Amino acid sequence: MAENVTPKPCMGFWRTWALGVGMMIGSGIFMMPALLAPFGGLGLMSILVTGGGTLLIALMLSRLTKVIPKVGGPYAYAREGLGDFAAFLTMWGYSLSIWTAVAAVAVGFVGYLDVFVPGLAADPLGSLAVSLSLVWAFVALNIKGVQESSSFQLITTILKILPLLLIGGLGFFHQGVDYMPEVNPTGGNPLSALSAAAILTMWAFVGIECATIPAEDVIEPEKTIPRVLFWGAVTVTLVYLVSTFGVMLVVPAEVLATSTSPFSDAATAVMGPFGAKFVAIGAMISMVGALNAMVLVGAQTPMAAARDKLFPLSFAKMSRNGTPLFSLIVLGLLATVLLLLNYTKGLRGAFEFLLLLSTLSVLIPYAFSAVAELVLLRKVGKAAPLQTTLLSLAAFVYTTWVIAGSGYETVFWGFILLLAGMPVYAWLHVHVTEETQGEVAE
């Protein structure tokens, strides 16, 4: 095993774009039309609002990438602007949330596979075997190399977008304006309804930051990543808007509001009985693409922290293919433990609790990145442009609104998770320092 292999950059615009878009488009889109149905036209407008907020974050990350094109993305930005402790908290919460999400997506995949293998979801051992096989298959793919992983990511991202656009597009020609949603069917204050709808859509946009994380694998990252962030945000906004609007035109609002599978209902209406299976295939492709992206970035962030002596040095060890071997294996083992919790009677509650605990942590990097940019602007010798300062503040305000909208319980347990990281940081500070001194002595 080689410990200091520097990988040759192999990710151009499209592969990096696929990583960011593939991370954002996961399972959330498949319930979006049902969640927004009670809000009608304002629900569609909320997609534009959250898409605009995501674009603010994308522009902020773009500016930081041009100045700090380092592996780790938000972790690297927090370290440069706010110091080691803020960087550790960013890495700690984000890595835990990604590791937990890997297990959650593997469980979700089994639910859609049950359409083709009836009874699978009800069989704990069978479900566990499929979930574990899926996780370790992507661990193996990412160990093999970033080039192979990013090629797979590009294919799955294209394949997951096409069904969504197809179903949405067919909706525009199926029923015409018969089911055109009302502008504000709630009858209440439009701004309040718009805000409530936006809170429901914002989670489907989380994940754009992952395009910044494997910076050393990206060709000309200071140029490529900013373009990817902008066009990635635009792509996802348009896909969500077209697909959700199309479904609303096919399925009556009162039916859509209570639907447990809105895209399946729409696909059945426009494609016949095969529609439900078509959507299940699309959902599985969507999930494996998101899972691959999670495995890739879930190993890179701890690797970056280990290089900076903020995490055990073993996480910085690279394979002969230039991939973070130890970090990937640990990710697979942690996902395995979580899957065992999920499929063990009496322990599923622990798995669901861990999901809740880590939900907020994926948003923390946005907040730290926004603050880091404001600090870095002050460190520059000359006065920062007013426009840049305002955009940084706007990104921070939007992130704060998203965090507040995630709910009291999520915020509470997310805060507890960050507090739990403090003694871990203190222990690691001593342990890694001793480990480093030992290596120097040798």
UniProtKB/TrEMBL annotation:
**Subcellular location(s) of the protein:** Cell membrane
Gene Ontology molecular function, alphabetical: transmembrane transporter activity
Query: Protein name, please?
Result: Arginine/agmatine antiporter
What residue intervals traverse the membrane? 12-36, 42-64, 85-113, 125-143, 155-173, 193-216, 228-251, 278-301, 322-341, 353-377, 384-404, 410-428
Topology in membrane: Multi-pass membrane protein
The family assignment reads: Belongs to the amino acid-polyamine-organocation (APC) superfamily. Basic amino acid/polyamine antiporter (APA) (TC 2.A.3.2) family.
UniProt keywords, alphabetically: Cell membrane, Membrane, Transmembrane, Transmembrane helix
Q: What does this protein do?
A: Major component of the acid-resistance (AR) system allowing enteric pathogens to survive the acidic environment in the stomach. Exchanges extracellular arginine for its intracellular decarboxylation product agmatine (Agm) thereby expelling intracellular protons. Probably undergoes several conformational states in order to translocate the substrate across the membrane; keeps the substrate accessible to only 1 side of the membrane at a time by opening and closing 3 membrane-internal gates.
Q: Where does this protein come from, organism-wise?
A: Emcibacter nanhaiensis
**Where is the organism placed in the taxonomic lineage, from the top?**
Bacteria, Pseudomonadati, Pseudomonadota, Alphaproteobacteria, Emcibacterales
Q: What InterPro entries is this protein classified in?
A: AA/rel_permease1 (IPR002293), APC_superfamily (IPR050367)
The Gene Ontology CC terms held by the record are: plasma membrane
Pfam families attached to this UniProt entry: AA_permease_2
